Amino acid sequence: MTQDELKQAVGRAAISYVVDGEIVGVGTGSTANCFIDALAAIKERIPGAVASSEATRQRLESHGITVFDLNEVETLSVYVDGADEINAAMQMIKGGGGALTREKIVAAVARQFVCIADASKLVPVLGHFPLPVEVIPMALGHVTRELTALGGQPVLRTGFVTDNGNRILDVRNLRIADAAALETRINQIVGVVTNGLFARRAADICLLGTADGVRTLTAS
Ligand code: 5RP
Hints:
Structural class: alpha/beta
Oligomer: single chain
Order of helices and strands: HEHEHEEEEHEEHEEHEEEE
Helix content: 25-40%
Radius of gyration: 17 Å
Largest sheet: 7 strands, mixed
Bound molecules: ribulose-5-phosphate
Strand order of the largest sheet: 3-2-1-4-7-13-14
């Protein structure tokens, strides 16, 4: 199977986690897009969705799926999203598409986080993928210096502005021995909106697309 076929398989598999009659939280990226396309086939069973980015909002609306503002809902039964990396503890690096802050907010409201990923995303240790950090523009110099002091090599994502009007630093070479501690540490830097470590709110399950089919993983 190709990587695209694996993404389509996990997108379809995640439909079984959607609760009839309830609004679903939807992530961002090519794998999340596969979920959105599968969701279109059952859209009559749900009131609609909350989107984690403008791109996701547009794709949902293009399928005729109603998009709710997050402030209109108190809780979501499920949030479905992809990842750039996921480990056996279900901790992730996200934000390759730059939507990390809204993704983290929607995930925080959801009772269950279902990560959908092709097999290439499962890693023994997080950090090969550069860690995205969303930064208030006036703080870019300060945050760059602070991340460098932590041992990272931050690089400004050129030509990219987030849905929140901010910039992204992609940080290479971070030692991520304790993902939850590093997530907290980076978020304490003044000017950081959030970073792409999803360790404090990890996924509850991962639907992993493999050549042998979709595997369901939980934290080990
Ligand atoms: C976007 C994300 C995506 O979930 C992540 O980048 C994975 O994307 P894809 O499914 O295209 O590989 O965090 O901000």
